[in-house]
Amino acid sequence: MCAKRLSEIMTPGVVGVSPDTPVFTALELLRNKNISCILVLEDNEPVGIFTERKVVQLAAEKGLQLDSYAISDIMTSPVLTASRDMDIYSAYNILSTHKIRHLVVVDENNKLCGVATQSNIVDHLGYEYFIEFKKIFQVMTTNLFTVSRGYSVEQTLQEMAKTSTSCLLVAENERPVGIVTERDMTRLLINGTDLKGLNVEDIMSHPVHTAHLTLPLLDAARIMKETRIRRIVVVDADGKIAGLTTQSDIIKGLHGLSLQNLKQLVVEKDRELEQTSRKLAEKTVYLDNILHSSVDLGMVAADLNYHIVYFNPAAEKILDIAAIEVIGRDIRTIHKKNEVLAPRFDKLVEMIQNKKRHEFTFIKEKEAIPCFVKALVTGIWDPDQSLIGFVLMLQDVTERTLAERKIKRQKSDLEVMNAELSALYAVSSKISQTLEMEVLLDEVLAVITNIEIFNFEQQGGIFVVDGDKVQLVSHIGLEESCLGYQNSRGINDCPCGRAIRSGETLILDSTEFEKTGLTEKKSHGAVIVPIKAQDKVIGGLCLFTPPDFAGLDDDKIVLLSTIGNQIGIAMENARLYEQTRFLSLYDPLTNVANRRLMTKGLEKYFSLAKRYKKIFSIIMLDIDNFKKYNDTHGHSAGDKMLVRVATVLLDDIRNADVVARYGGEEFLIMLPEATLETALLTAERIRQKITHETGTTISLGVATYDSSMTKNEQLINKADEALYRAKKRGKNRVEY
């Protein structure tokens, strides 16, 4: 397997400045963006680099009186660069050889692509790398720069600049109490802090990240990545400083180590065993050392008589058997102890003789704890391709197996969560599309019955509380014979009412569900979910379940309750919308259309008449002597008269006609598809009916659209003129 390339691990987003950028601007960028370096670019080509270490060195040599300097005066140049295709081993060799932490990555035209650091390399080292270095103490640095709390910060600056040291430890009784890094010193210097009189105790970072000597190196790398630190102080059992491990220490094993060769050692061990099969019989020191160095890879070798000739320490640990107990014994005894039957063993030997390998995983208990072991069996072949033995390779994969199972569980949990969120989104999305109550409920019901995680049938209904009854307001897939029956049920007479009263979700079997009256089939069950708005149950959601319905777990019940609440809020919003809409389009006194709705209607019908040569007539009417009536009987009586007149008008007109209050005691009636003759007959009928039912008289003017009209105002003016003539000619009459 190929090593990773810099293009895969580099940091692409790099802060760059031009060569003429003032130094103080670069210093502020280091501080504000919390970065360790800035690149100096010309036409996106790197010409220099400015790092935290450079800040420390400049401060030690000249102080930070650099106001007159440009970044080009003090940057490190030329810049060490590498191509995007360079592997991480070669990159590390450059970093190590030149004792730098940043390697600039460029393309074939020397244009900037990114920066590769030691952090990038550590983050992308595979598990195989850490096999070579098992514990943190194996790579730690013991030559440390350690000072007491009272050590001078000025002296610290000089020492760090002189030795190019990235940090120093502050210790008390040989135990770490703080740490001072180049970044700490850089921030101090950029902020203009006066170092005189300061001790390291005043500026150190604490508490310190520590680890015991035996911490696995893989865990140390993970801690550095998660906590975004570059170093860990290594302590002994008494908490005393034993060393320091940095990212440089972790990856120093890359010097001369090929990750590919290491992986090949693990994955293709059988090939190496074939090449050294003759030496295996004599147990040469060379092979013995190689096999013993396989810390995590258990290896067992046997000859053609199945006698064990090699059993390494890792195999002892994995199989919980001492090598001295099995060397020279028949390997089948181990298989028998682990309950591997003889026919299975014979089949395995036959596979190997046919130059095949066999991989399997088995579970072995240690102190009543199950351990997962991955095994590979293959043959050992001499140069003439003759089988001369067998080798069994073992690896304890308990940690990985448990991690994979945990990931699988988490994946399953995420899938469930995603399904639940998708369900909520589907309902919310549909709710957000309309405020029309009837449309809203029908579409939401269709969405809910199609949500896969519930496994509902595409049948159900939505009820609302209407006094002491429940009323079916929306349904899907219900038999026609059930609809009227259900609308007559009292809230105390059916399970739907019980769910509404209790405020809890009910799951009904087929027997209980028959009582709802919603189905004639015997095999259905149902789930009934209360619909709530402002903590008050206003209805119920009834959803049919199939015969094989497996029920609902607590999470799904909670999800359905949430959906019920969403529907409740949507219904309340729809009710408010309808109320607001009514108030905005209808006269609050007479409940007929107001001037706004009248104007929209006139525009609509006039446009249809003009475009499609449709017939359209209007009637304008006025209550005779209304002012005198008001003055005589009072405004309250006048209002009641307006309501009575409006009621007669609404009762008399066709469904297609629209009555509007034009203003004061005037009304306008729009009659689409009505000829002048029809409009006159309608006007006369209305005049007589109002006189008969209210005791008052009205005057009416009728007008019909003709093709010479270009604006609806012309039609209104014509009706108004006719009304004026009716008034002038004695009132209580119809004119046109």
UniProtKB/TrEMBL annotation:
Residues 614-736 form the GGDEF domain. It catalyses: 2 GTP = 3',3'-c-di-GMP + 2 diphosphate. One of its GO terms (molecular function) is diguanylate cyclase activity. Residues 10-68, 75-133, 140-195, 204-265 form the CBS domain. Keywords: CBS domain. It holds the Pfam family GAF_2. This is diguanylate cyclase. Transmembrane segments: none annotated. It is an enzyme of class 2 (transferase). Residues 356-409 form the PAC domain. SUPFAM superfamilies: CBS-domain pair (SSF54631), GAF domain-like (SSF55781), Nucleotide cyclase (SSF55073), PYP-like sensor domain (PAS domain) (SSF55785). InterPro entries: CBS_dom, CBS_dom_sf, Diguanylate_Cyclase, GAF, GAF-like_dom_sf, GGDEF_dom, Nucleotide_cyclase, PAS. It comes from Desulfocapsa sulfexigens (strain DSM 10523 / SB164P1). Residues 283-338 form the PAS domain. It comes from the Bacteria. Its EC number is 2.7.7.65.
